[in-house]
Design brief:
It is built from 2 helices and 30 strands. By secondary structure, it is mainly beta. The protein folds into 4 domains: 103 residues, Immunoglobulin-like (Sandwich), CATH 2.60.40.10; 69 residues, Sandwich (Immunoglobulin-like), CATH 2.60.40; 71 residues, Immunoglobulin-like, CATH 2.60.40; 91 residues, Sandwich (Immunoglobulin-like). β17 and β18 form a beta hairpin. The longest helix has 28 residues. The radius of gyration is 57 Å and the shape is rod-shaped. The N terminus is likely disordered.
């Protein structure tokens, strides 16, 4: 019996020695940068022999903590001492940097081995504040690293060399930037928190119920036609106002102004005067005087003139001839043509006014066709006597008559008085 127990003990010792032919390595890696500052977030892994049959394997990467430390434990399961490979490789990856170290496993399986590795890193301090310099509580992301700002609005990142995108979120607002990690540096990011008041009125200064959008927010105007926005982060947002089917947009610089007013022209423009002057050639000039009423009217935008002849409508260009006065030239039309013309006036808010009129191209007097006329007997016609001859004749007759009268008077004066006759 004793012999059997002795044999079993020997076998157990032999089996135990075979199990310990491999090794278990306990490794602590501490990563520093070029200024001996601990590096957080460096990936550390090992490539070692699992056994002589399965060959080499790589461990799953583990990342260094804020002290730059990480612990690794890996085992070689080879049972034949002569075939056990004690050499392995340690890899430290940080950004685009990959450092490799060749190591030998320790014979003392309980011993903790410490290895130092060096990579290049830089610190980037990001400060987040509003336009007045007050620190903001924000979430900052640089590359894959995400941190919250402290009470001073700061977040510190340790980065491998390279270019990074910065993303800052604060109360639903987003600001992005970029940074190059080639030295220790600070980055200040401002999230401007602006307020804006938008007033919406008609051209008679009455408030309107409208939808107003700015900086990703949409607000309805109140009974006074006012929409208020708070904590806008964009310094120059585009403000959009929608009233019925009309839309107006304007970019506002909130660093310069914190209020803006929109006016919607609701009154149609009017055609105050409309007339057509027909020329001798059958063409016509249409004159129109228009008006866009209202104390805050948008003003006349376009004037369109068209004419209709025989059911065919054509358009002619209108041109400004004075203040709110326009003219258009309609081409010549045949005699006896009835021309209908119309004017369409559009203001700058899209309101439309109309006017219309007609004119007729008159028929000119034509020479009567020649026809046989009764023969007139020739005779004296006073109308055919030249004016000069007629005047001379009149002067001659007057002179002769005057001479005769003068002669008779003189003759009567020269005769002696005659005695009165005695009746018989």
């Amino acid at each position: 019996m004793r012999v059997i127990f002795a044999a079993l003990a020997c076998a157990l010792l032999l089996f135990s020695s075979l199990l310990q032919a491999g090794y278990t390595e306990r490794l602590t890696v501490q990563v520093f940068d070029q200024q001996l500052r601990p590096v957080e977030g460096a990936a550390v892994y090992v490539e070692h022999e699992l056994n002589s049959v399965q060959g080499n394997v790589k461990t799953k990467p583990k990342f260094t903590n804020s002290s730059g430390l990480v612990d690794l434990v890996f085992t070689n399961y080879e049972q034949i001492p002569s075939e056990t490979s004690y050499s392995y490789k340690l890899y430290v990856k940080y950004g685009d940097q990959l450092k490799t170290y060749s190591l030998i496993a320790d014979d003392d399986f309980e011993r903790q081995k410490v290895v130092s590795a060096e990579v290049v890193s830089y610190f980037v301090l990001i400060s987040v504040h509003d336009q007045k310099g007050a620190p903001l509580d924000a979430l900052v992301q640089v590359g894959d690293a995400v941190k919250k700002t402290d009470e001073y609005g700061r977040a510190l990142f340790q980065l491998a060399p390279g270019n990074y995108d910065i993303r800052v979120e604060q109360d639903g607002h987003l600001v992005t930037s970029a940074v190059k990690a080639d030295m220790d540096r600070s980055v200040d990011l401002t999230i401007g928190l602006y307020n804006l008041r938008v007033s919406v009125r008609d051209d008679q200064r009455k408030p309107l119920l409208a939808s107003v959008s700015a900086g990703g927010q949409t607000v309805k105007t109140d009974k006074d036609g006012v929409a208020d926005f708070y904590n806008l982060t964009e310094q120059k947002p585009e403000v959009t106002v929608v009233y019925r089917d009309s839309i107006k947009r304007i970019a506002v610089d909130l660093a310069r102004q914190n209020s803006v007013e929109f006016t919607f022209d609701l009154v149609k423009p009017k055609v105050k005067e409309l007339h057509a002057v027909v020329g001798a050639d059958g063409g016509a000039t249409v004159g129109v005087f228009v008006e866009d009423p209202g104390s805050s009217a948008s003003g006349i935008d376009t004037v369109l003139v068209s004419y209709d002849v025989g059911g065919v409508e054509s358009r002619v260009p209108a041109y400004a001839a004075g203040y709110n006065t326009f003219e258009a030239r309609i081409p010549p039309q045949p005699e006896g043509t009835l021309v209908r013309y119309s004017v369409k006036v559009v203001d700058k808010d899209g309101n439309v006014g109309f006017g219309s009129g007609t004119y007729f191209i008159p028929i000119s007097k034509k020479e009567e066709a020649e026809a046989p006329q009764p023969q007139k007997q020739e005779g004296f016609e006073l109308s055919k006597v030249p004016l000069e001859t007629l005047l001379l004749g009149i002067v001659f007759v007057v002179a002769v008559a005057y001479g005769a009268i003068y002669y008779l008077r003189k003759k009567d004066e020269a005769m002696p008085p005659q005695p009165p006759s005695i009746p018989k």
